[in-house]
Specification:
The structure holds two protein chains of two kinds.
Chain A: E1 2-6, H1 9-21, E2 25-26, E3 32-35, E4 43-48, E5 51-56, E6 60-66, E7 69-74, E8 78-81, H2 85-91, E9 97-101, E10 104-107, E11 111-116, E12 122-126, E13 131-134, H3 139-146
Parallel strand pairs in A: 1-2, 1-3
Antiparallel strand pairs in A: 4-5, 6-7, 6-10, 7-8, 9-10, 11-12, 12-13
Chain B: H1 8-34, H2 47-74, E1 84-91, H3 94-100, E2 115-121, E3 124-130, E4 142-148, E5 157-165, E6 171-179, E7 184-191, E8 195-204, H4 207-213, H5 219-226, E9 229-237
Antiparallel strand pairs in B: 1-7, 2-3, 3-4, 4-7, 5-6, 5-8, 8-9
The chains are: A alpha+beta, B alpha+beta.
């Protein structure tokens, strides 16, 4: 059995050793991910071309909900997530991610440019060139998070 | 629109408002993007709110300018331009004249509140309507209808001269117009200060004599010298 670990660096080696003593192999390509309770996930379980995989959250530029699909945009490509946006919002570290509309969660470090619109709205240009809108409902939260 | 000058201020303020919106947005965008570069961004008013604030401020400024201008205009409220009206119509009958004058406004002056007085002198019939009610730019103070009832049929032209004079005799306004000698004449008169008006009617039978005086500077005087039929009436205003 293979397991991927999504735990703090301090505990990583110890947990890995104990798992391997019990015959469980620790691998980044494993199907299952072990998270520490109370900690935000460092990995996301996604699908691409019907193939299940895990991607580090640090590679995520933004996550978008389109109808029944939740699309995870990274520099390497676009993946599908089986989790709903609401669930993802809870599992992702709020220090790194921010919900900017009912259908978009952005990675803060991937915001390349902010443009104020004429109404209470921001237009974000992400690092991959994509455009995301901060809607009126999330306007004040966004300003607070970015200190503007 | 701009020639009159009254649209300059509002148009300027609109342009100023647009400029404020554009410039503030640029400053705001630059400020918020500085936070992405790790610099501390200032907490500025967001552009949508600034649009409203600047609009209100400019409207207040516009109102102050308008009040200042209105006060300046009021300083001249005691000034009244001299108002004279001498509008002449000719027609085959008094009825036709009533229909034509000012779109039929004087079709029936009596029913419009004018007092009528008729008189005859020197082969002329006069009907004078005087208004005791109106003192505005729309209605004439007096309407004078005149008709030549004499027997002469050799007349080639008729001239009406209307002369306004102050009580001391100084001339204020003079007009002299030529007409068809066979027609009746209606003159609408208005004046906004004490004065008198003399209406002279001159009928000419010598075309050559008339042509010889056409270019003269005192034409109205010369007309009376060559006219064969002449009459005049004087009417007075007391304000």
């Amino acid at each position: 059995m293979k397991i991927q670990l999504s735990i703090p660096e301090a505990q990583y080696e110890q947990v890995k050793k104990e798992l391997e003593e019990h015959g469980i192999e620790v691998s980044d390509r494993a199907e299952y991910v072990l998270n520490m309770r109370g900690q935000y996930s460092g990995w996301l379980s996604v699908r691409k071309d019907r193939e299940q995989t895990h991607i580090p959250v640090s590679s995520v530029i933004y996550i978008e909900s389109l109808g029944h699909d939740v699309l995870v945009h990274t520099a390497e490509g676009v993946y599908n997530s089986s989790d709903r946006l609401v669930q993802l919002e809870k599992t992702l570290d709020p220090a790194l991610f921010l919900r900017v509309s009912n259908s978009v969660i952005i990675a803060k470090k991937h915001v390349k440019r902010i443009t104020a619109a004429f109404t209470r709205k921001f237009i974000l240009t992400m690092s991959d060139g994509s455009i995301a809108d901060v809607t009126r409902s999330y306007y004040d939260i966004f300003r607070q998070e970015f200190g503007i | 629109m701009l020639q009159n000058g009254y649209m300059v201020v509002p148009l300027s303020l609109i342009l100023l408002w647009l400029a404020i919106i554009v410039i503030y947005r640029r400053i705001y965008n630059r400020n918020i993007n500085s936070s992405l570069e790790g610099k501390k961004a200032l907490r500025l008013v967001d552009p949508s709110r600034m649009n409203v604030i600047s609009l209100i401020a400019l409207l207040v400024i516009f109102n102050i300018i308008t009040i200042a201008r209105a006060k300046k205009v009021q300083a001249y409220s005691h000034y009244q331009a001299d108002r004279f009206l001498a509008e002449t119509y000719t027609g085959e009958s008094f009825e036709e004249l009533g229909e034509r004058a000012l779109g039929g406004l004087y079709r029936d002056p009596e029913s419009a509140g004018y007092l009528m007085e008729t008189s005859e002198q020197n082969d002329f019939e006069y009907t004078v309507y005087t208004s005791p009610l109106y003192n505005d730019m729309m209605h004439a103070d007096m309407i004078v209808l005149a008709r030549y009832k004499g027997e002469r049929k050799d007349l080639v032209s008729m001239y009406s001269t209307v002369r306004f004079s102050r009580p001391d005799g100084e001339d204020i306004n003079l007009s002299c117009i030529g007409h068809n000698p066979d027609e009746c004449i209606m003159i609408l008169l208005s004046c906004n200060q004490p004065c008198s008006v003399e209406i002279s009617l001159d009928y000419i039978d010598d075309k050559e004599a008339l042509d010889s005086i056409r270019q003269s500077t005192d034409f109205s005087e010369q007309i009376q010298n060559i006219s064969k039929v002449h009459d005049s009436i004087v009417l007075k205003w007391i304000h």
